[in-house]
């Protein structure tokens, strides 16, 4: 049964479930599968790999369902031509995260796309609204990948109140099932954005070993910090850090970040070798606290249908909040 909200009306979708633009692993296959299930898939533009972006947007140009393209704003700002590539594919929306969207808002709107902005504070929300944002993603620290420090239970109602009905607000961070969707809607959100849950899906382009590790993890098996960014020599601006699964590399360097910086050349070289070899005892699996709720790797359609069915039962009073 469809769950209609201001978000679904604006995006032209059946269900208020969005898949996050996970860098590179959220490819056209996942985006299309989520869209065909009635949700909204967002391509993971990441740090701006041009060849990959051209390839994946080309596959979506004839898509029969609406889709989005997401960018790390501060990185895309160094290669603004990437936005033009994305807009040529006629996406329903462009999602910008981690940086000032104002320089790009007019181009996005002029091309006929909606502007989605992910925010972690009220100040960021104001910046996004001033840039013309049509949708705000309120991201809590439980989210996998990069984010800030405020919890989902804190930031979602705060941004809902701040937006005061101007635009739909979508909740992100630690959500993996229908209970999460129902809870966020009770707090005023118009939908949810999920990364880790869709990472562990058939259509995600992530490595099978990474997906298996998400399924085996508990909520306590993630950590937020700078270790993997330093190890990759990717210097993120404050206040953003990355949440990943805990592995041997994380255990080795937690509490020793200064030493890691001093030895970054040697560590980065070895990290690159192990990452390319698919050794996830060293390489990062960017996953959030929702990993503790994830135990299988189904098709994206099944994920969307499960979430919507469970949320509908909860919101209609046909099911309590206890997991089956």
Question: Explain this structure to me?
Answer:
- The protein is of the alpha/beta class and 324 residues long.
- Helices cover 41% and strands 15% of the residues.
- The protein is built from 16 helices and eleven strands.
- The strands form two sheets. An eight-stranded parallel beta barrel has the order 1-2-3-4-5-6-8-9, surrounded by six helices.
- Helix 3 packs parallel to helix 5 and helix 7 (122-130) packs across helix 8 (152-163).
- It is globular, with a radius of gyration of 18 Å.
- 50% of the residues are buried.
Distance between the termini: 19 Å
Largest sheet: 8 strands, parallel, barrel
Q: Give the C-alpha Rg.
A: 18 Å
- Overall SS class: alpha/beta
Shape field:
globular
Proportion of strand residues: 15-25%
- Ranges where pLDDT stays below 50 over 5 or more residues in a row are none
> What is the ordering of alpha helices and beta strands?
HEHEHEHHEHEHEEHEHEHHEHEHHHH
Please count the helical segments.
Answer: 16
Instruction: Going across the biggest sheet, name each strand in turn.
Output: 1-2-3-4-5-6-8-9
Oligomer: single chain
Total strands: the figure is: 11
In helices, the fraction of residues equals 40-55%
Mean pLDDT: 96
Outline:
By secondary structure, the protein is an alpha/beta fold.
Give the helix/strand layout.
Elements: H1 6-11, E1 17-19, H2 28-36, E2 40-44, H3 50-60, E3 67-72, H4 73-76, H5 81-88, E4 93-97, H6 105-110, E5 114-119, H7 122-130, E6 135-139, E7 145-147, H8 152-163, E8 169-172, H9 178-186, E9 191-194, H10 196-199, H11 208-216, E10 222-225, H12 227-232, E11 241-245, H13 248-253, H14 257-262, H15 264-276, H16 300-315
């Amino acid at each position: 049964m469809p769950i209609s909200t201001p978000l679904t009306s604006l995006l032209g979708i059946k269900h208020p479930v969005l898949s996050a633009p996970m860098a590179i692993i959220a490819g056209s296959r996942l985006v299309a599968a989520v869209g065909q299930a009635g949700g909204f898939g967002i391509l993971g533009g990441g740090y701006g790999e041009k060849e990959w972006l051209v390839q994946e947007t080309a596959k979506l140009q004839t898509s029969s369902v609406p889709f989005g393209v997401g960018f790390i704003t501060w990185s895309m700002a160094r290669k603004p031509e990437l936005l033009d590539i994305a807009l040529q594919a006629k996406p329903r929306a462009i999602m910008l995260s981690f940086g000032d969207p104002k320089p790009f808002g007019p181009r996005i709107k002029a091309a006929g796309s909606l502007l989605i902005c992910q925010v972690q504070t009220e100040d960021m929300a104001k910046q996004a609204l001033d840039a013309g944002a049509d949708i705000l993603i309120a991201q809590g620290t439980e989210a996998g990948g990069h984010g800030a420090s405020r919890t989902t239970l804190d930031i979602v109602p705060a941004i809902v109140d701040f937006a005061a009905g101007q635009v739909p607000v979508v909740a992100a961070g630690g959500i993996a099932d229908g209970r999460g969707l129902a809870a966020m809607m009770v707090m005023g959100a118009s939908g949810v954005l999920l990364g880790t849950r869709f990472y562990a899906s058939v259509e995600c382009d992530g490595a099978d070993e990474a997906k298996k590790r998400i399924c085996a993890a508990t909520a306590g098996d993630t950590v937020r910090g700078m270790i993997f960014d330093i190890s990759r020599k990717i210097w993120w601006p404050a206040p953003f850090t990355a949440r990943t699964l805990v592995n041997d590399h994380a255990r080795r360097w937690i509490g020793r970040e200064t030493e890691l910086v001093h030895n970054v050349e040697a560590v980065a070289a070895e990290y690159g070798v192990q990452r390319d070899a698919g050794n996830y005892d060293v390489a990062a699996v960017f996953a959030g606290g929702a990993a503790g709720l994830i135990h299988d790797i189904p098709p994206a359609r099944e994920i969307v249908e499960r979430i919507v069915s469970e949320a509908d039962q909860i919101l209609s009073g046909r099911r309590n909040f206890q997991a089956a």
